[in-house]
Fold this protein.
Amino acid sequence: MLSTEDNDLVTRVGPGTPLGALMRRYWIPVVVASEIAERDGPPIRVRLLGERLVAFRNSEGRVGLLGEFCPHRRVSLFLGRNEECGLRCVYHGWKFDLAGRCVDMPTEPPGSEFKNRIRQVAYPTAELGGVVWAYMGEGDPPPPPRFEWTRLRDDQRVVTRTWQECNWLQALEGGIDSMHASALHTKLTPGSPRAGLSGLWTVPVPLRDEVEVTDYGHAYASIRPMDGGRRWVKVYHYVMPFYTLFPFELGGDGTTLQPIINGHIFVPMDDENTMVFNWIGRYGNDALGETERAALEWSRGRGPGEIDPDHRKLRNRDRHWLIDRTVQKTETYSGIDGINNQDHAVQESMGAIVDRSLEHLGTTDAAVIATRRILLTHLKTARRDDAPPGVAPTYYNIRAIERIVSDGGRWQDTLRALYDPRDTPQR
């Protein structure tokens, strides 16, 4: 459990908050690049860390990120005209470039210097891995986040985003809770076409979670005992401040699946809403075929018709996540379609910001406890000029993996070269 004060410290992200200041020192995902592909196309509204912003691609193909409201009369620049390398307010014609400079002010007389004194909030952007990123902090930005999935070819990667209607931390804590998959995502009827897990995933055995704190956050293993003294070891990663990497290499019978890498980025829109960036990639040389892409998205609850243009789920809390009680009795443990929909439902059901002072954590909550300690330690003890964990580019080759091991040694010694190949050259 956490005290009320500590709970506020790790959940509040607005301007002026300690966590908000910390997160502004990292590159933050803004939109999927394909959503804003058109030069001089329509602006997109964005909420990041409690700030209301608009993103647009200018005439030269560069992406700008400005404060949403015109500094003249506070009209939304979402209504603006994106033209000739700037965004022009439709109310009186004030125009702003990527840096937030007012480059035209037709309401003022010729020779007026007034426009030179006006600056709109503006943040630098970068494009990487099919995502537009922004740096919202002070000073020079850190190196761009060149994770393995960002370096894949476009045909090897799927990136989407989904609005989750709760605080960022309870969303992220769901992503680092490995035990819940054996209950929440279980298929009661293995042959059911509904999305879920079966086989060894659902065998009720005591799992053991072990956490290794790292320079970027932590790696943790969920260890499931098997027959013959073997162990099924699933190694996950938490990367500061809001990344999770999870494995998907073995089936419920222990057989090898396709080489897929997965992860989420839990980006706070504000204190009570999160934009979850979902990525799936294939390492090696093979592409993700269209049929395979569609199947992966369907299994997670992001198929056609499931997400509206604002990225809100069809199966949202206002509609009780469309839980089907008959399906819950006969086919799946939750009665909710889509693995990520199931995750969102339980996390959103806690309320906008869960009261962690009322929790009673158990042995399988080791990764959750470690994550909170890392956040709180940095928020309480770090000096202003200390580099936060996870901004240095040394760890970008880490990978979430799973293997069945038979030796009795430490999983770190057996599997480290696979999940933390620090000496592997970056592509």
About this structure: The mean pLDDT is 91. Helices lie at 4-9, 18-23, 168-175, 290-299, 325-330, 339-348, 366-381, 411-419. Residues 366-381 form the longest helix (16 residues).
